[in-house]
Write the C-alpha cells for this entry.
Amino acid sequence: MDANPLRELPSVNQVLESPALRATAHDAPRSELLAAVRQELAATRARLGAGEALDGDADVEGVARRAAERLKERLRPRLRAVINATGIVLHTNLGRAPMATAAAEAAARAAGGYLNLELDLDTGKRSSRQAPVRELVCRVTGAEWAAVVNNNAAATVIALRALCHGREAVISRGQLIEIGGSFRIPEIMAVSGAILREVGTTNITRLADYERALGPTTGAIVQVHTSNYKVSGFTRSVPLPELVRLGRRLGVPVVDDIGSGALVDLRPLGLRGEPVARASVAAGADLVLFSGDKLLGGPQAGLIAGRKDLVHKIERDPLMRAFRPDKMTLAALEATLRLYLDDDSAIRDVPVLRLLSAPVAELRARAEALAAPLRSLPGVRSVSVRPEQTFAGGGSLPGQAIASMALAVEGVSRSAAELARRLRVGEPAVLGRVKRGLLLLDLRTVFAEQEADLVDAVRKAAAPA
Ligand SMILES: *Cc1c(COP(=O)(O)O)cnc(C)c1O
C-alpha cells in the first residue's frame, strides 16, 4: 500500500472521462456533473484522511460510481409525488387537498399558455381577475359578492384591515386560536392593525359579553371556528344568528371565519360540526372567510364571501395586490367550484369528499386484496388488515375520529421505522405510520390507481439487503 494514499486519488478529469460516469451523465448540466465529482473527491479525501481503508474504492471507477450516485441525487426533483398512506385526508405537509382531475387540468392549461385572466373577451376590455370566480363563489354560497386571495390567513388579514384598522375587533376568548404554522388570531389581528377586544372566557361567552364590548370604536364582531380543537364540558358560545342580530342592531358587521370551507353539508357522510359556507351567509354573516384547499378540496386559496360594499372595500385595499391569486389557482378554483353546482357531482368528483366518504367495508375489501401480494414479498414477515381511526386533518372536524382500514406490515429483518424510512425516500415516496412496532398503511388516503405502485414500493423497501 502506498505510504500516502491521498496522492493516489484520481484527478477531476480522470473521473469525468471514466465510462461509469459517461454512461449516466450524458444529458446532465456540466456544472452539476463537475460539482458531483468534486464533492465525491472531497468526501473520498476526507475518508482517507480519517484513516479509512478504502481498498480500491478510491480508484477512478470507485469515485466515478459514487459521483454518478451523487449526480443522480442532485438532479432528482426535490418536490416529489407522495403516496399518502397516513389516512389523514387533509395533510398540510403533503399539500392538503388533492384536486379533482378537472381542476388539475385547468391549472395545467392555465400554466402552459395564455388565458383571458384579466380580459373580457366580449368587449375586448380589461376586466378583474376576480370576476369569473366571483360569480361561482356567489352561486355556491348564496353571497352577494366575493373575492379570492392566496389563503385564508390572507383573507383574515385583509378583511380585518378593511373593517377594523385602528378599530376594535370583538372576539370571544374561546376563539383565540392557533392554527399552526404561526397563525395565531391575536397576532393576525395585530398585523392587520385591528385592536383585539377579547370578551367572555375560554369556556363561556354570552351575548351580554359582546354587547358590553360594543361601542363607537368597534370595527367588527369576529367569530372564528375553533377548527382544530374542542372545548367540552361546561361551555357556552353565542350562535351566529344572535351575533348577527346584535351586529345589525348596532350597525356592526359580523365576520365569520369558518376555516374549512365546507360547501356541502357533510352530515350525510357521517361528518358533523363543520360550518357550511352557505349556512353562514344565510344566517346573515356580513363576511364569511374560508380556505380553498381544506374541505372545499381545491387549490390553496382564501375565499371571502358576503356583503358587496364590504368586499369592495377589501378589493380596494392595497394589500389586495400583494394577496391576489395567480392564474393557476384561479383556473383550478373555477373548475373545482363548478363541481359544486350539483351536490352529488361534488361528492363524486371532489377527491377530498370521495376519500372522506369511502365506506369502511370498501376500504377493508381493498386492504384484503392487497394483503396477499404484500405477504408474498421477500423480507415481509407478516401483513394483517386492521381497523384504524384517522382524522380529516388540516384543522377540520376536530376530535372527530373517522373509521378507516390499514395494512399492518412487519418486516423480517428491518424494523417498522426502517421500513417507513425506506418507503419515504423511495420512488414513489410513500408515507405511512409506525405504531407499536408495525408499519401501518392506511387505505383511506390511498387512491385505487396507486395500489400497484404501493405494492412495488413495499417490495423495494422490504427487500433483504
Ligand atoms: C385553516 C384555518 C385558517 C388558515 O387558513 P389557510 O388557508 O391555511 O391560510 C384560518 N382560520 C381557520 C379557522 C382555519 O381553520
Q: What stands out?
A: The mean pLDDT is 94. The first helix runs from residue 12 to 17. Residues 151-153, 156, 179, 183, 224-225, 227, 257, 259-260, 291, 302, 395 surround pyridoxal-5'-phosphate (CB under 6 Å).
